[in-house]
Amino acid sequence: MKTHVSPAIIMRVKEIRESDLLVIFFARDKGLLRGVAKGARRSLKRFVNCFETFSLVNLEYEARGEDKPCFLHSGKLQHVFQGLRADFTALSRASYMIELTELLFPAGVSEPRMFDLLKESLNALSEGECSARIPLAFELRALALGGYRINLEKCCRCGRSYKGEGLAVFIPERGAVACLKCLQPSAIHPSLGPDTVKALARLQTGSLCESAPQDLPEAVLQEISGILKLHREYRLEQKLRTTKYMEEA
Fold first, then answer.
1. Domains and CATH numbers, the chain
2. Terminal CA-to-CA distance of the chain, rounded, Å?
3. Whose CA is closest to 46, among 58, 34, 54, 56?
C-alpha cells in the first residue's frame, strides 16, 4: 500500500481499545478520511500533541481500501489555533465550519481549495479577525466549491443580464436571482440590493483575505445572512447540528 504525507486538519478523535485512537481528519491531498492511530495514547514520539480537535498536523498515513480506515504511521503538529480554545464563540463557529465541510465534501471527494479555505478560516477565527463575519464568508465560498454557487449573472427566468443596478430577487429553489419583471420580492423570495449582489459574487469566488468581509456594511451583511440561510437549507435539505451553537454565539 502507498504511504501518503499530507497536511491535515483534525476534526474528531475517538478512543478505541486500550491505547488506539480513531481519527477523523481532512487531508489536503485526499479530503475527508478516517484513520487508526495504533498505540497513540501511549506514544511519546509518533503522535506528540497531534490529535487535538481543529489542529493542523502533517500526517503520514497508508490507505487500506475504500471502506477501511487508513493506518496512521506518524504525525507532526504544525499549528493548534489556540485562540479557538480560549473563546466559546470562536469554538462554536469553528465547529460549524467543520460540520459543513464534512457535509459538503464526504469521504472520497478531494478538494485542496476547501482544505486551504478551512485552514485560513480557522486561523482567522483563532486570531480574532472580524470573527462574526468569518463563518459567513467561509460558508458562501464552501458552498460554491461544493457545487452550490448562487447564480448572480442573469435572471434565471428570462435570461436578462444583471448589470449591478436595481434590485434582484433570490429564488432558493433555483439557487439564482430573478429580475423584478419576472418576480416580485416576498418572504420566501427576498430582494437583494446591488451592493449585496456584488458582495455575494466576491465572497463566492475569492479567498478569505481577498473577499475582505470586514468592509461590508451591516445592512449588506443582514441581507446576505438571510439569503444564505434560505440557500443552505434548501440545498442541503437539513439543519446542521451546530447551528444552535452558532445562534447562541
1. 3-80 (2.40.50.140), 83-149+192-248 (1.20.1440.120)
2. 45
3. 58
Nearest to 181 by CA among 199, 166, 200: 166
Per-residue model confidence as pLDDT tens digits over 168-192: 999 999 999 999 999 999 999 999 9
Cβ-proximal residues to 188 (8 Å cutoff; 6+ apart), any chain: 172, 230
DSSP secondary structure letter of residue 111: -
Q: In a 3-state reduction of DSSP, which class is residue 48? A: coil
pTM of the model: 0.91
What is the arithmetic mean of pLDDT over 19-31? 95
- Locate 166 and state its grid cell: 436595481
Long-range Cβ pairs for the range 9-14 (8 Å, 24+) = 9/54, 9/55, 9/56, 9/57, 9/98, 9/115, 9/118, 9/119, 9/122, 10/50, 10/51, 10/52, 10/53, 10/54, 10/55, 10/57, 11/53, 11/98, 11/101, 11/102, 12/53, 13/51, 13/53
Which amino acid, 15?
Answer: E
